Amino acid sequence: MVVIAVTALILGILTGTFWENGFTAFLTANSGLILYLLMFLVGISIGLHRGIIDGLRRYHIRILVIPAGIIAGSILGGALCGLLLGIPLSQSTAIASGLGWYSLTGITITNLMGAHLGSIAFLSNLMREIFSFFSIPWISRHLGYFSCIAPAGATSEDTTLPMMIRYTNEETVVISVLNGVICSAAVPVLIAFCSRMF
């Protein structure tokens, strides 16, 4: 998955740089429609997880603790990085609000704040997902299974889920899926909120 994402990024850069034509103009002009299509497909993915309702019944309000911690930690981390790098809080926290969902975050922030910040958002959230792949095995051994969900963020229901299955237990996998659904639903709201709040 990481190789495919990086390859797609490189091909996109090369296409935009050397091969500007009607197709690239269409994609640029209709990035909002592409974003809606992406959200629709994510909705289908969430709907296909049959165990979500059972998981919510089983864990009740406790299921919100992990996503709330991940969201708060991500936004605080973004704010800290913004202060260290001299980036306005609205921009740094909006970028961190992607929670690892690089495709949606990149498009959304490009539409709200421009292509420069959209590129930063895309790359930082892609790096979060790549970091998750390498860190989950170590975290599961040294910090516990539930801690593995934190670096994955919104991707804990899809791209990083195979790592959860391999290095954690069944209960953690269920919570990982539920966390991914909650974080994915929160990402657009958090980006819009942070971009206007600070």
UniProtKB/TrEMBL annotation:
Key words of the record: Membrane, Transmembrane, Transmembrane helix
Cross-referenced Pfam families: Lys_export (PF03956)
Transmembrane segments: 34-52, 64-87, 99-123, 130-153, 173-194
Coiled-coil zones: none
Keyword Iron-sulfur carried by entry: no
Domain of life (superkingdom): Bacteria
InterPro entries: LysO (IPR005642)
Cellular-component GO terms for this entry: plasma membrane
GO terms of molecular function: L-lysine efflux transmembrane transporter activity
Protein name: Lysine exporter LysO family protein
